[in-house]
Amino acid sequence: MAKPLIMVVDDEVDVANAIANTIKDTDQCDVVVANSATEAIGHLNKNKLFFGLGGNKIRLIFLDIKMPEMDGLTFLEKVRKDFGEDIGISMLTAWEDADKWDKATSGFVVNYIKKPFKAEELLETITKFFEGKEGKMVLETFEKHIKKREEFKEGNDQ
Predict the structure, then answer these.
(1) Total domains, the chain
(2) Which residues does the UniProt record annotate as the domain Response regulatory (predicted)?
(3) Which structural domain range is residue 120 located in?
(4) CB 89 within 8 A of CB 72
(5) What CATH number is associated with residue 88?
(6) pLDDT of 8-46, one tens digit each?
(7) Neighbours of 82 (CB within 10 A)
């Protein structure tokens, strides 16, 4: 049986490779790396499944926000519009503010991981996702967003 396919999208080559190697070291998933949103769209198009209901071989994406050409949040919107909601997306970024959380959670992300990433959090995201807990993960991420929104509001009030 083929291993699930995960895509890492990050313009920082060293970071993308570190994430990919962390995933590869588990020997449970195959990984493809894209260093731009344009390259990532190419990988999504190459991995479309044409039989039955469609879908994509890429099941989960770890996505950076700050990238040239097209940022991660715009890419997230494009994936949801062009490829649907069956591809899990986890933000993995150094950028965190109320607006980014709003846009990410409106795209039904399964997690929002801050860089520098912790291997345990990355691998836990993968495990939960492939155990079929995607819906619960989206809800938990939205709940984290609500808590973060309060933190951002408190920070602005001071």
Answers:
(1) 1
(2) 5-130
(3) 5-157
(4) no
(5) 3.40.50.2300
(6) 999 999 999 999 999 999 999 999 999 999 999 999 999
(7) 10
